[in-house]
Specification:
Layout: E1 11-18, H1 23-35, E2 40-47, H2 52-72, E3 76-79, H3 84-87, H4 98-109, H5 114-128, E4 131-134, E5 138-140, H6 143-150, H7 157-160, E6 170-174, E7 182-184, H8 196-200, E8 206-208, E9 211-218, H9 223-248, E10 252-254, E11 265-268, H10 285-290, H11 297-317, E12 319-320, E13 333-334, H12 337-343, E14 344-346, E15 348-350, E16 353-356, E17 361-363, H13 381-390, E18 404-406, H14 412-417, E19 431-433, H15 456-464
Parallel strand pairs: 1-2, 1-4, 2-3, 6-14
Antiparallel strand pairs: 4-9, 5-17, 6-9, 7-8, 10-11, 12-13, 15-16, 16-17, 18-19
Helix pairs in contact: 5-9, 5-11, 9-11
Length: 503
């Protein structure tokens, strides 16, 4: 089947860092191949490295495993650490370069920060080229999941309509069904959502949807690519800010005469303040980020990714809230509701999984790195971390795989090749489900062959016996032809789109 630039992303990219690939991640590769068979597919990897010759040999063995699994699913393997120069080409070279990225990678990989490194790499990849970058916990959507979405009281036809990959600039996951759910003083480098400095300047925090990074699409040469670049730079800025805060408060020491573009802490204290500083910029957030036993670690990692993405969106798509004046010289930035609708794709919650109808994917776990059920004792954080890294929970997927596509741009022959004959009867932009129809006994539905020539006399008699309703009586012009009663109209549930409550 030929590549379709409307319904197929030019490139699908997955990421796996750390140890051996989990069964969950391997299944993700297979499902993505089935979902996007005509797209270029890339797997970004980075094996954990231990000191010494044995560590180097173990890293090579991991690379061989990654290559084997990727090749089996038609993915090309790229090593993020080795390609740091390429990944950073579009960043502000006065602030960040390949060594900056490698320094961050070294810190993350040596502290089981695989998720954080993955999030940053997703921004870097999107800053370079057209890409649908997804977690390996994504699966091909099932028909049962789409049926559940249609039965959701928040179902919105427009929000599930497939978009054209050749037209969309940016698509980000929205977990809050089009409503505002988070707030932040956007485009600040502080880790926390709000800043006293912004309040003092008269800038209120912005409200925006609950975004996530487990699936992101950006198109090269558009504002979507600019958002990914800005998000990567915002991530580095946040990391630098919490490191400087830590240095100011005595939690972090840096190497003397270190590269101004590098990130080389010499020591990081892991303890956290148990006083009024907790939860402020004076808190030891860098220690929390690199301490695998810290209860706030996951929040720090997740919040940094979402805040970086949010700042990137506001930098590129935001407009001044008002015209600057001597009284208010620092207007905040706002993103219009229609813009949010254009750049987000709504995720529906179905039995704890996230369904993305617009790209026909389902995230079957909240993180592909956390595929196994955690230990019963929540205090054993080291055991939890090991379970997170191994990610071996078996996925339970039911139903037939389902893909929604746009069909109106297809010619007759191509539509029929894709099984979209019904599309030829309907004008307009319509969603279609590609699946083979089956009968009750699960055998393919076929048209029964004609076994004999029709009986013309019987056919004539049958036609003559068909009543013609509402036809005038030519023998008696005053006769009234009975009209069959109109059936009572019944309300169709979920027929009207859910209103967007954004103000």
């Amino acid at each position: 089947m030929p590549f379709d630039e409307v319904n197929d992303p030019k490139r699908v990219q997955g990421i796996w860092f750390g140890g051996p690939m989990s069964d969950n991640a391997k299944q993700g590769l297979r499902e993505l191949t089935e979902r996007f068979p005509e797209s270029e597919r890339v797997l970004w990897v980075m094996p954990r490295t231990r000191p010494g010759a044995a560590g180097q040999e173990a890293a090579r063995a991991l690379m061989d495993e990654y290559q084997q699994e990727a090749t089996a699913s038609g993915f090309k393997v790229r090593n993020a650490f080795d390609e740091a120069e390429w990944l950073t080409e579009n960043l502000d070279s006065k602030k960040y370069n390949a060594e900056t990225l490698r320094d961050v990678y070294r810190m993350e990989m040596s502290n089981q920060g695989y998720i954080a490194a993955k999030d940053l790499t997703a921004f870097m990849v999107g800053s370079k080229e057209t890409s649908l970058t997804v977690d390996l916990s994504n699966r091909h959507m099932r028909d049962t999941e789409m049926e559940a979405v249609r039965g959701d009281g928040r179902y919105d036809v427009k929000a599930t309509d497939p978009f054209g990959y050749n037209e969309a600039e940016l698509k980000i996951v929205d977990l809050s069904y089009g409503d505002d759910a988070l707030q932040r003083h956007v485009m600040q480098t502080d880790f926390e959502r709000t800043s006293e400095k912004f309040y003092d300047a008269g800038i209120e925090p912005q409200l925006y949807p609950h975004l996530d990074v487990f699936a992101m699409y950006s198109r090269e040469g558009t504002r979507g690519q600019e958002v990914m670049t800005a998000s990567a730079e915002a991530y580095f800025s946040q990391l630098s800010q919490i490191a400087m805060n830590g240095q100011k408060n005595g939690y972090v020491q840096f190497q003397d005469n270190s590269d101004p573009q590098g990130f080389k802490p010499e020591s990081i204290k892991l303890e956290r303040p148990l006083n009024e500083n907790y939860g402020t910029e004076n808190d030891n957030w860098l220690g929390a980020k690199y301490n695998t036993l810290d209860q706030d670690r996951d929040r720090v990692i997740g919040q940094m990714a979402i805040h970086s993405l949010t700042d990137g969106i506001y930098q590129v798509y935001g407009q001044p809230e008002y015209e600057a004046s001597p009284d208010k010289p620092m207007p905040g930035r706002v993103v219009a509701p229609e813009t949010w609708n254009d750049i987000t794709m709504r995720a529906y919650d179905v039995d704890g999984v996230k369904v993305l109808p617009q790209i026909s994917l389902t995230k079957d776990a909240q993180n592909s790195w956390r595929g196994r059920d955690l230990p019963e004792n929540p205090q054993n954080l080291h055991e939890r971390s090991e379970a997170n890294a191994q990610g071996v929970r078996e996925s339970k997927l039911r139903g037939e795989k389902l893909t929604l596509v746009q069909a109106t741009h297809l010619g007759v022959d191509r539509a029929r090749e894709r099984g979209l004959d019904t599309a030829l009867q309907n004008p307009g932009r319509i969603r279609f489900e590609i699946r083979q129809p089956v009968s009750a006994d699960q055998s393919p539905v076929t048209t029964p062959p004609r076994t004999a020539s029709p009986d013309l006399n019987q056919l004539t008699a049958d036609v003559a016996a068909i009543p013609i309703l509402n036809a005038p009586n030519v023998l008696n012009a005053n006769a009234v032809t009975p009209v069959p009663p109109r059936p009572t109209e019944t309300a169709r549930s979920n027929s009207a789109p859910v209103a967007n409550h954004r103000k």
